[in-house]
Amino acid sequence: MSRALHSPWQWHVPRIDLSHTHWLTDSGSLTQKLKNHCQHFSVQRINQLSSPLSLSETIPMQLPRGRSVLQRQVLLICNGVPAVFAHTVTPIERVGRDWPFFNQLGNRALGVALFSNPLIRRDSFEYTRLCSQDDLYQMAQRALNGHGFDIALPSHLWARRCVFTHTRHANSRMMVTEVMLPSVYALQPTP
After folding, report:
1. How far is CA 168 from the centre of its chain?
2. Residue 5: is its pLDDT beyond 70?
3. How far is it, in rounded angstroms, from Cα 83 to Cα 188?
4. At the top level of CATH, which class does the domain 18-184 belong to?
5. How far does Cα 142 stand from its chain's mean position?
6. What keywords are annotated for this sequence in UniProt (predicted)?
């Protein structure tokens, strides 16, 4: 197996098909956007466990590499087909105080909790183009394979990430990364 990479993250919106751009740039809840584009929406939790912070997450999270964080990975599914792979990290010791809802999510969407609280602020998006050697790409592929979805991913996937902070808690940080899977681009608004 080849060594995993970390594609560079950038602040500017990537040059992709204009009909796909809104999936990366929409400032609202991606969960709500997906619900508005399918008849049946569900969340499949892949895991929620302690893991070391990856190199590409150290600067936005303001934590040293290898620091233990609580990681949550889910598939956001529209009409029975995974549309987004989401990867969330936050310091373990901050969960109870800053994000008390986090451990009770199960197969519910994180976005609902984040966007319903006016005290939670989201920073600007960063974007990247993942190749098959990237950690996140490989996580997405393992999530699909491990949960019975036989989906051949293209050679590259677009992803976005942002950091959420709680305005009443100093140093609260939760980073949410969303990897767009091929089926998301075919979704149309539901009537």
Report:
1. 24
2. no
3. 12
4. alpha beta
5. 15
6. Cytoplasm, Lyase, Pyruvate, Ubiquinone biosynthesis
User: Is-contact 30 112, C-beta < 8 A?
Assistant: no
Question: Do 47 and 73 touch, CB atoms closer than 8 A?
Answer: yes
pLDDT of residue 1: 34
For residue 79, is it left (φ>0), alpha (ψ between -120 and 50) or beta? left
Whether 72 has a binding-site annotation, put simply, is yes
Per-residue pLDDT of 117-132, as tens digits, reads 888 899 999 999 999 9
pLDDT for 81 beyond 90? yes
Give residue 2's pLDDT band: very low, low, confident or very high (50, 70, 90).
very low
Domain boundaries, the chain: 18-184
Contact (Cβ atoms closer than 8 angstroms) between residue 65 and residue 71: no
